[in-house]
Design a protein that fits this description.
heterodimer, A: alpha+beta, Elongation Factor Tu (Ef-tu), domain 3, 21 helices, B: Nucleotidyltransferase, domain 5, 60s Ribosomal Protein L30, Chain: A, seven-stranded antiparallel sheet, 36% helix, 30% strand, flat, eRF1_2 (chain B), Pelota/DOM34_N (chain B), Protein pelota homolog (chain B), metal ion binding (chain B)
Chain lengths: 668, 394
Amino acid sequence: MSRHRIVRTMDYKDEYDGYDDVYGHSVDDDHCISPTDAQQWLYDRERGRQSISTFISKNKDIKEEGEHDEDAEDEAYEKARRDSESFQMPELNEMDQAKLSSCVDEVRSVVGDTVSERRIVETSMKFDYDIQKILDEILNGETKKSAKPTLRPKVPVPIAATTVKSASKPPPPAKISLKEPRRGFEIASPKLPSSPVVSGRNSPVEVGEGDLSRTSASLFKVSKDQSQRNAQQLYEKERADQKSHIHMIVIGHVDAGKSTLMGHLLYDTGNVSQRVMHKHEQESKKLGKQSFMYAWVLDETGEERARGITMDVGQSRIETKTKIVTLLDAPGHKDFIPNMISGATQADVALLVVDATRGEFESGFELGGQTREHAILVRSLGVNQLGVVINKLDTVGWSQQRFTEIVTKLKSFLKQAGFKESDVSFTPCSGLTGENLTKTAQEAALTSWYSGRHLLDVIENFKIPERAIDRPLRMSVSDIYKGTGSGFCISGRVETGMICVNDKVLVGASREQAQVKSLTMDEFTQTSVFAGDQISVTLAGVDINNITVGCIISDPQTPIPVTTRFQARIIVFSVKVPITMGYPVLLHHQSLIEPAVVCKLTASIHKSTGEVVKKKPRCLGSNSCALVELETSRPICIERYADFKELGRIMLRVAGVTIAAGMVTKIR
Amino acid sequence: MKLLGKYVDKGMQGNVTLMPEESEDMWHAYNLIAEGDSVRSTTIRKVQNETATGSSTSSRVRTTLTIAVETIDFDTQACVLRLKGRNIEENQYVKMGAYHTLDLELNRKFELRKPEWDTIALERIEMACDPTQSADVAAVVMQEGLAHVCLITASMTLVRSKIEVSIPRKRKGSVQQHEKGLAKFYEQVMQSILRHVNFDVVKCVLIASPGFVRDQFHDYMFQQAVKMDYKLLLDNKSKFMLVHASSGFKHSLKEVLQEPAVVAKISDTKAAGEVKALEQFYMMLQCEPAKAFYGKKHVLRASESQAIETLLISDNLFRCQDVNLRKEYVSLVESVRDAGGEVKIFSSMHISGEQLAQLTGVAALLRFPMPELEDSDDDDDEDGAAGGDDSDSD
């Protein structure tokens, strides 16, 4: 209809006159259909009967099928029959006939009823009744066509649940070694692919891990492209000419000068323009807080600036000669440790900033100071390499004595916390004056005793950790926001695997399917991203309300387990009150914070040998090690530590104090 | 609750007439009524009449019925108690043995007859009828993106609303989204306070959060109140109290109730007392593990040796269907009292009560250490837990 019709003055009666005869009868009447076409769509009783009768008369020796096959395979059989119904046996001599029927029987016994009669017969004739070849051909063709599971459940659904229970015998809690084979408690009997619904308290996730790889193809369809590409090759192709990425978190006690140090580093490496810096200088002067001018580079919200402390993890990046470093500036204040944890889960290496000022270092390092807690936290979150920065050394006149005093204290502590001595370096510097940041030290008082590396050099020397690019995709969501244009963005770090544009992914515990519309890394659009990258993804096909911070994006072919109850091996830090059954805790897992309850103390174990000291202890005191079961109120995505190191680590916190760290050993 | 009549004979048989006056009384009634009791109350029933000609009419009649209770249903959020059972007193509308569901209503009396009244039940009546115990506190525990608006009454903590908003993180060059998200979140919390907090009843409103969220929210709320002219908020500004909490999850209410400033203000509420008692238990477990025990078996054995100084017991254990199990717990309480011990019955609707219910529901602080209890390794610790779990109301 033309846009320029004058609708207002239109006479509707006239307009619709023409339509009447169209609406009157079916459109089909106007077209004719050829008899052959018609036959294809019309049901002809004779046809089916004839084919069956010939089939029976010619295959007298056909075996009766087992009953269990019949009811379970109904669906597949139905499909196969449609194919074989209109199929007539080829005319053969007696000898061949016998060969053929035995062939068909043989093949049937292997593949069941999933393959049509016609296909078997044709293939058998093609390969001259060679069973081996026929099977090869049929099975290969089958897997290529679709990854339809050849095994189907042999029991009705309710019984399946009970068999599963009995089949998954609980491994003895006495010897929990983390190196048990990957599918240690796999469930033997095949199960129905469960619908991807959130499981309740008493119905743990039915889709076992082992099953997923097999059933997921029918659960979640993915494009051939996505399922067959080789991540490692792609990675080498795309990233060969680029510098390697590393994520570094800056931690330390409140007011140790983390933000200032990073701000100054950014400024010195030319990542902050002169103009912006000038603006910060002017504004901070106005507030009478000139010493905060560098910190303002990273502390952007009004609240943070007014109060002069970092509250959320600030992010920026610098480029060194060989690396691209993403700086994560963690808040030091006690109340913002949850933010710091979510930042630390994304980091590969850490920079611990300590204040050298007299009294300040001590207050940060003594019990309750964040220097201690942060260092233990990042270690338990899997950070191995640590650069220690002795900041504000200018306030004590670049005294060597003070430097060595702090270094000795920290060294013994860090060793206790589990850092290797070779992975820890100590650098004196001043964040405010910029001494020893990007250039070797100039100050005479410092150069007289220090000739080591400057900070940028230390960062340069961090080793790049291995990236699990070959593994299935896992990405934790740390932020959700409205992007420019349509849809919304989530950002986070790709823990393992890779994502390409247009991939299908599963979101969170609800396992909703979404499509990747675009990928950006550091404000540049990408077509594919790999493990270790900090990215933002624009998703389509999922509601923004169904994504929460902390949920995991996973590969549709190997979805992440979803559970409300799991077993973990925990190390209890120094606690004021012991952990008992029913102890409510906050569970930190990646960026996720979820209330949980310690619902069972399975066993307390020896710290170093891993032997069970006592089964079912009454309570867990400070510095003990134990196997416990945790239950969350909502289902969460979690992996066993043995399968995915990154996603198997947890933290337990109570009343603002980290009480335990642990790893997931078993998922219910 | 008002006690209108009490006729309990020496054999502990008899009936009690009560009138619930506020929603919390329903909770008490829920704890009083057990299966097998008979309840008499006025109710509305649909009655069908068939006339001689065969046409039938149905009408709603208000009548007084007595039923033998078979099923008890309690909605914690709406505080509605439903009792289902068979009619045991025939009247002109309802036949003997016909099923009826009684909806206990506020300000309508009901008569409760038990085959046996135990001390726990009688105490509960006394407690319910004590007018001094009603002290309502509203609490908002929040963190960025998450808030719980709770009402704390003498024996219940009710989560009136849970607000969960995902707030975009600050990122280079787009702080606005963060600030906009935050403002939206605060607005929702404020609306929820306006909707759910009855300032006539509530003594004070606690705003608890980590960091500066509470200050920010407080500022925002009163700015908005001035701007939009919310009289209700402005008049009650003095009732607001800012406290520290480590997170916005429900169980950080426990920290809030331990805060010295809060304790001073709401000193005598049951909730605060329970939190303190449980904390004492945990402290004892840390310092002298041989003097603190939990689990039915351990506690019973400690009671046998008259060692219990303070018994902590969750009221969900008394709500269990099994009459014998209830009797066991009642006798435990009585024996501890006889031995001069103190008994604290926790409400399973409070945070600390929830925790105790998870901790098998019963715990005890002893007068003297009994290390032999610990050594007697036993495998049926779960028995107590199972007993506690099945009757958990929420």
